[in-house]
UniProtKB/TrEMBL annotation:
The protein's name: 2-C-methyl-D-erythritol 4-phosphate cytidylyltransferase
Annotated site (Positions MEP for the nucleophilic attack): R160, K216
Pathway(s) of this molecule: Isoprenoid biosynthesis; isopentenyl diphosphate biosynthesis via DXP pathway; isopentenyl diphosphate from 1-deoxy-D-xylulose 5-phosphate: step 2/6
Enzyme Commission code: 2.7.7.60
Role, per record: Catalyzes the formation of 4-diphosphocytidyl-2-C-methyl-D-erythritol from CTP and 2-C-methyl-D-erythritol 4-phosphate (MEP).
Keywords assigned: Isoprene biosynthesis, Nucleotidyltransferase, Transferase
Species whose genome carries this gene: Zophobihabitans entericus
Residues the record marks as site: Transition state stabilizer: R22, K29
Length: 240
């Protein structure tokens, strides 16, 4: 870790104001349970328990009636803020609680299988290079480009040699990310993750090869996969 960066705090920001409509459930997907804990609790516990994370900011919906009933809501590292109507707006709301010298580690609420190993790899790479970066996985499937006429037919296959699937956490200087998000939102740019805001402002974030089990729960069938991964991770910890 660079000496010039070793004294800066790393603060996790978790956008959790979405309703998870693709899960087709009555409650937001982050409150669905895997075992005894909600998805959000699994996610927050991983972040809280990492020694380099100073604080965790959770951006929740103004109508959220569940978060404050969770034991993790009263953890001294956790602060809740009111999120916005988009991921970018929620992240920006969380960033308002950070100091200018902080580093913001933004992580999806619905990625409960994150490992400390991946967090360490991201932190070490970013701090060594003194440049923001994201966890990502090289694309292994053949990727097809569809025609723009929505007929769901293939125009051609894409060369996947340089294609990566973006994941989280994504780690950037708090002030830089805040500035880029504000600019992108004010100019109505399409922002799908924090890296795309940095890219919009001319930046080129690092790609840090992460684990494939760090999945995002999006569809109902993802719950079974996440349950398996979390069970395996728990067994591995017991055997250490």
């Amino acid at each position: 870790m660079s000496k010039s960066m070793s004294n800066n705090r790393i603060v996790a920001v978790v956008p959790a104001a979405g309703n998870g409509s693709r899960m087709k459930c009555e409650q937001p997907k982050q409150y669905m349970k895997i075992g005894e804990l909600t998805i959000l609790e699994h996610t927050l516990n991983t972040l809280i328990s990492h020694s380099k994370i100073s604080q965790v900011i959770v951006a929740i919906s103004p109508t959220d009636s569940i978060f404050y009933t969770l034991p993790v809501a009263s953890h001294p590292k956790v602060i809740a803020v009111q999120g916005g109507d988009s991921r970018a707006a929620s992240v920006l709301a969380g960033l308002q609680k950070l100091q200018a010298t902080d580093w913001a580690m933004v992580h999806d609420a619905a990625r409960p299988c994150l490992s400390h190993q991946d967090m360490d790899k991201l932190i070490d790479t970013v701090f060594d290079k003194q440049q923001g970066g994201i966890l990502a996985v090289p694309i292994s499937d053949t990727v097809k480009l569809a025609y723009a006429d929505k007929t769901k037919t293939i125009e051609h296959s894409l060369d996947r040699t340089y294609l990566w699937g973006a994941a989280t956490p994504q780690l950037f200087k708090a002030e830089e990310l805040r500035s880029c998000l504000q600019k992108a939102l004010s100019e109505h740019a399409i922002i799908t993750d924090e890296a795309s805001a940095i890219e919009y402002c001319g930046g080129h974030p690092l790609l840090v090869h992460g684990r494939r089990d760090n999945i995002k729960i999006t569809q109902p069938e993802d719950l079974a996969i996440a349950t398996f991964y979390l069970t395996q991770q728990a067994k591995n910890k017991e055997n250490v």
